[in-house]
Amino acid sequence: MSRPQEPHRPFFPFGNPFRMISPKGSTLSPQLLAVLHAFEITLGERLKKLMPKSNDEILSLSWMSLAMQMLSETHNDIKTLITDLDLPVHDWDEKWIDVYLDISVKLLDICIAFSSELSRLNQGNLLLQCALHNLNSASSNQFSRARSSLDGWKQHIGSRNPRIEKCGGILDNLVGSLDLPKVKKSPKGKVLMQAMYGVKVQTVFVCSVFAVAFSSSTKNLVDLEVAETYRWAPEFKRLHNLVNEELRVRFSGGRFTVLKELEAVDSAFKELYPIIPDVADPIGAELDLKTVEQLGRATEKFMEGLDLLAKGVDGFFQVVLAGRDALLSNLRSGGTVYDHVSGGNIGAQAVN
Prior knowledge:
This protein is mostly helical. It is built from 10 helices and no strands. α3 packs antiparallel against α6 and α6 runs antiparallel to α7 (187-215).
């Protein structure tokens, strides 16, 4: 169950997020620079892996699964970076903790929304399987039953998921969280905040694209500007511009969906449905089996893609949850932990 939607507000307006964190005249040690450089180079390589070879690959379920895998790996890298910095949690600035906890709970909510949509799409596939079963059986009512199942699929797939509709507000808050807390006296803190910025940019971008794909609307599309000072900026800009532009082009054409595999199912459905005999008795009625097989293949491929993506979303959920639990555990070991954002005892709050 998702947490109640909080009022719309930016998270932490600490200033311009598109500037370098280190003020003029400040320097980082070679060791800290090496840690930061390694993180940013790896982030750039991951973004490069997401560059599709052709526009047709964009919003395929395999591409979305790769995007979720890359996101999980980047979030795991933050744990490694903190270890490399030797920056114990009890030395974190209170603002950093607030940022992390607020963002993590929003990400858990958005993962729950994505998982619910994947489950909804899979429920629609059950109707398709039922239709295919009837079309391949010898039942006297096979055609009418198949039509009924296909009618149910069309109605189901065209409905809206309330949880996905709420993703826009969550994304607005995540965009607000891109503002970076000021770091004055901690070189390690500056490295952590700069790395966190890269993580947040990648996260907002991927979640925005997923929300657009699942809502079949560009209203959740987020345009991000990143300063050239970040090593991963060129890779991000190329990926960001290509994907966002392609999404706008597809929706401008009034397409039913931007999910490649779902488009294939819908195309096969449109070809099959009109030629199903509208009779209860199949005697003398003929059906082109090639169109039935085409829908069967498209449905199977769609189901396989959904299963792979669902595992990726669940994996990302577990990464975020594990990171949040580890932080809270470390904080509790040093005393009572309070959620500075909500004003309550965060240890007593459950993330549903």
